[in-house]
User: Fold DNA-directed RNA polymerase I subunit RPA43 from Lotharella oceanica.
Amino acid sequence: GLGPPRAQGADFPRAASAWGMPEKDPEDDAFFKLVSCRMPVFLHPSRLGNVKLGVQEQLNAMLLTYAPTLKGVVTGYTGVKILSAKGKIFHGFRHIEIPVSADFLVYAPRVGSIVNATINKVSVDFLGGLTQGVFNISISGEGLKGWKYSSGGFSRENKSKNGGLNRIELGTAIDVIVKDVNTEDNNLFIMGQLASNLPKSKKSIAKAAETTTKREAKKEVGSAKKKTKKKDRDKSPVVKREKNQVKKSKRKGIDEGESSAKKKKKKKRKTK
Assistant:
């Protein structure tokens, strides 16, 4: 055994963070989640004299890397507890397994969501940037549709009339639609597409979305009103009378046609 650990969680820092968390807008906040997790930490024998420090080093090594069990990038942790006074040793493996629990702050952008990025690389067919000031984002190929490279930046082929960006250069802050999330080698890499049809600010985006929704709602209301008017018109006494007259005239025409056909048949019989 390793001997009793010190008071669980008491000797650990209250929180450990990968960086001073940058200021996030409300939409980007949705990509951060707090995940409580129990997990094994593997300590080198040289750390058995100070288990707390060994655990902290292992958890620090997880910062800014993608953790498959947490389904996101670890940006910070808190509430660390050593769950057992004893560790496990496996045959042929020199490290000792220590069970711990902690609350992890995880960054997990979703495909189809919109993130804000600052451009730090520009080439003839590529834009590179950072989102949250840390994570790489790449825009190329179809992601640049509607934009053309010129003089060290990209210009919109058809200028925006709704307050959107018309020029992207180094240092430009842009909205990007997440098309794919690559986590190879536990590093987060985002492939995106320029949100070229969206206005510049998130407030404008919300306003534009609200306007579109209202417009669609008006269309639906208008359509519903037309249907209601038609139903009401169909129920009116005048329309009912007209419909009955049409039915009667049709019936009369059919009856006249039938009687005419019968008369012709009778004539044929008489001539025979």
